[in-house]
């Protein structure tokens, strides 16, 4: 079994334990699900190399059926057909602008807000390009389950102004991409998205 498959199984165990803690009917069941949750966090700690205390602080206690987190990204080309990327201060690598979905905002509102915050550019959403399930792609191990939505956007191509968590931003030729932050997006995905846009594809990639 691969490292990625092991991580996916651990996430499933954790999700089942959290679901059981919400819907259990007896104290015996509750104790078993709590033990199962503890085991899943211990395994996550080993696989992701994160202390259990860190994982406990990260994960809020489940109060409803556990669901995937949603990461929303914007794909933007300038007139030279170069792709807009931002350099994350956290790891010093580059990604499509975007971030976690926010409660109270639609996906399109989230991405226009993120693009404005990270680059200072006003953006308009054109269409949905892709819905990626991270388990189907070779991203680094991560303790939570993630869907990624990528929207094709247009900007005013004005002056770029980065935010507190973005070190730099700029446009890059598709054949000369910088080091990509693979936790956020893969170079192969950027190439796929570029091909879809340049080919004027009406399809939406999923999974």
Question: What does this protein structure show overall?
Answer:
This protein is α/β, with parallel strands linked by helices and 207 residues long. Helix content is 36%, strand content 24%. It is built from 5 helices and 8 strands, in the order αααββββαβββαβ. It has helices at 3-23, 27-48, 52-58, 107-119, 187-198; strands spanning 69-76, 83-88, 94-95, 98-100, 123-133, 146-155, 166-172, 205-206. The two termini are 21 Å apart. The model has no long low-confidence stretch (mean pLDDT 89).
Topology of helices and strands:
Elements: H1 3-23, H2 27-48, H3 52-58, E1 69-76, E2 83-88, E3 94-95, E4 98-100, H4 107-119, E5 123-133, E6 146-155, E7 166-172, H5 187-198, E8 205-206
Parallel strand pairs: 1-6, 5-8
Antiparallel strand pairs: 1-4, 2-3, 2-7, 5-6
What would a concise description of this structure say?
By secondary structure, the protein is an alpha/beta fold. Helices cover 36% and strands 24% of the residues. It is built from five helices and eight strands, in the order H-H-H-E-E-E-E-H-E-E-E-H-E.
Fraction in helix:
25-40%
CATH architecture of the largest domain: Alpha-Beta Complex
Number of strands: 8
Strand content: 15-25%
The main β sheet shows up as:
5 strands, mixed
CATH fold descriptor of the largest domain? Nucleoside Triphosphate Pyrophosphohydrolase
Question: Descriptors for this entry?
Answer:
207 residues; alpha/beta; Nucleoside Triphosphate Pyrophosphohydrolase; 2 domains; 3-stranded antiparallel sheet; 5 helices; elongated
């Amino acid at each position: 079994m691969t490292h990625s498959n092991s991580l996916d199984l651990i996430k499933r165990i954790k999700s089942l334990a959290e679901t059981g803690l919400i819907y259990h009917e007896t104290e015996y069941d509750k104790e078993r699900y709590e033990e199962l949750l503890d085991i899943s966090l211990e395994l996550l700690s080993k696989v992701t190399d994160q202390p259990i205390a860190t994982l406990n602080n990260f994960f809020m206690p489940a109060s409803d059926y556990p669901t995937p987190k949603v990461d929303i990204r914007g794909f933007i080309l300038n007139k030279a057909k170069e792709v807009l990327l931002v350099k994350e201060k956290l790891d010093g690598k580059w990604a499509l602008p975007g971030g976690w979905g926010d409660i109270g905002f639609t996906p399109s509102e989230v991405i226009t807000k993120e693009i404005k915050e990270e680059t200072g550019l006003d953006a308009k959403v054109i269409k949905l390009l892709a819905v990626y399930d991270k388990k189907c792609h070779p991203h680094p191990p991560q303790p939570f389950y993630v869907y990624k939505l990528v929207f094709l956007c247009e900007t005013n191509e004005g002056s770029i102004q980065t935010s507190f968590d973005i070190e730099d931003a700029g446009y890059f030729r598709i054949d000369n991409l910088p080091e990509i932050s693979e936790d956020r997006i893969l170079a192969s995905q950027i190439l796929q998205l570029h091909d879809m846009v340049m080919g004027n594809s009406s399809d939406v990639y999923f999974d």
